[in-house]
Amino acid sequence: MSRTSHSFAPPVMEARRWLDGVQFTADRPLLNLSQAAPVDAPPEGLRAAIAEAAMHQTDAHLYGAVLGRDDLRAEVAAQWSAAYGGQIGAQNVAITSGCNQAFCAALATLCDEGDEVILPTPWYFNHKMWLDMTGVRSVPLPAEAGLLPDPERAATLITPRTRAIVLVTPNNPGGVEYPSNLVRAFFDLARKHGIALIIDETYRDFDARTGAPHDLFTDPDWDDTLIQLYSFSKAYRLTGHRVGAIVTSPARLEAAEKFLDCVAICPNQLGQIGALWGMRNLGQWLAGERAEILDRRAAIQQGMPRLADRGWDLKGVGAYFAYIAHPFAPGSDVLAPKLVQDAGVLLLPGTMFTPKGDTSGARHFRVAFANVDRAGIGTLFDRLAALGGPGWPLAPKAASA
Questions:
Q1: Do 35 and 109 belong together in one domain?
Q2: Is the pLDDT of residue 139 over 80?
Q3: Cβ atoms 272, 70 nearer than 8 A
């Protein structure tokens, strides 16, 4: 049996197949809320910087350092030190071919076959896929009220084979921002048990809070426990260039270098040059992008009462995502393809973010609103509010409400 046979098909690719053969009209075009990736090109200045490097910078076309360009590593370290109020050096930073690769590299330094990693559910499906394909057991930690994981419940799941706890904040798929004291509680729990705390902060640039989202980097020995992951894709629209980062101890990066050298040798040079230019020049532009995402978040919250009257429930919202419970009897995995046909809406069902047998997944959808503005969100609510009739029977609880 192959390693890949232990995992499921990529969910976003599966969802795209639901579009096959479906005709959309000019008065009801497809609303695609399935993927959290900006579809617009990077700002012109960033594109010009990449073009300039492509034409005139020879090393932009050559193999580079496995752990990334020195200038970008140093810039991340400097900006992170200022943002989090901690001491982070370039030796603590590695650049990777996207944040998914950063996660895979981190796990390669931590786990052997048969080890365990605690994942709060609903989880990010690519994390689960990678653990499956490497023979590492994913231990579900069901979210509590507000889609927040409970450190005390996590403590009961730790065994001698546990190697890490993974947090995603702002969360994918739930959108929620984990409070600083909750993140600190997980850090203390991980340190107590001698395991790693992996925090995926892909969406940190769109956090609604001001200031540092947690204080872990202020701990002088933070790198004995913390592994932070980051993506430049969302901040600077560099999805096709594949640029991410790991922030952790130099010793762990030395181990990660073995993995990275075998899968990509080095991260994309032009992407790194673009990311560095973005970090140095696009602070004000990124603030505008954040303000737009926060306005879309507000539009979700303001529009939900219309759906709440019909039995829908907003469980979490933030960054690029909302996680909503539906009122219908069939599960979300059955309803998601019907949404394409009946409403012209593409959403991912909660079953793609939960373990098999977890009934909560069937009650939820993830709404990824990175590419749908306030008007589009209003259209989404119009279409969802109109659902009903054959194939859309209300669940008993919703029908009696």
A1: no
A2: yes
A3: no
pLDDT in tens, 252-308: 999 999 999 999 999 999 999 999 999 999 999 999 999 999 999 999 999 999 999
Domain with residue 204: its CATH number is 3.40.640.10
Query: To the nearest whole percent, how much of the chain has pLDDT over 90?
Result: 89
The CATH number for 358's domain is: 3.90.1150.10
Structure-token match 């993927």, residue found: 35
Q: Which domain-ending residue is among 282, 305, 339?
A: 282
CA dihedral 297, 301, 304, 305 (to 10 degrees): -160
The pairing of strands 345-346 and 137-142 is unpaired
Q: Please check whether residues 257 and 301 belong to one and the same domain.
A: no
* AA identity, residue 20: D
Structure tokens at 107: 């796990």
Whether 401 has a pLDDT exceeding 70, the answer reads: no
373-383 tens-digit pLDDT: 999 999 999 99
* Confidence (pLDDT) at 127: 95
Contact yes or no for 22/340 (Cβ under 8 A): yes
Q: Which helix (H) or strand (E) holds 366?
A: strand 364-368
Neighbours of 77 (CB within 10 A): 18
> Which pLDDT belongs to residue 399?
47
User: What pLDDT score does 398 carry?
Assistant: 53
Which of 247, 282, 317 marks a domain boundary? 282
Average pLDDT of the chain is: 94
Number of folded domains in the chain? Answer: 2
Amino acid at 324: I
State the residue range of the domain holding 340.
4-41+285-400
Instruction: Identify which of 18, 20, 34, 21 has the alpha carbon closest to the alpha carbon of residue 353.
Output: 34
Retrieve residue 152's tokens: 């005390």
Q: Are 234 and 338 members of one domain?
A: no
* β 116-121/162-168 pair status: parallel
DSSP string, 110-142: H--TT-EEEEEES--HHHHHHHHHTTPEEEEEE
Residues recorded for the chain: 401
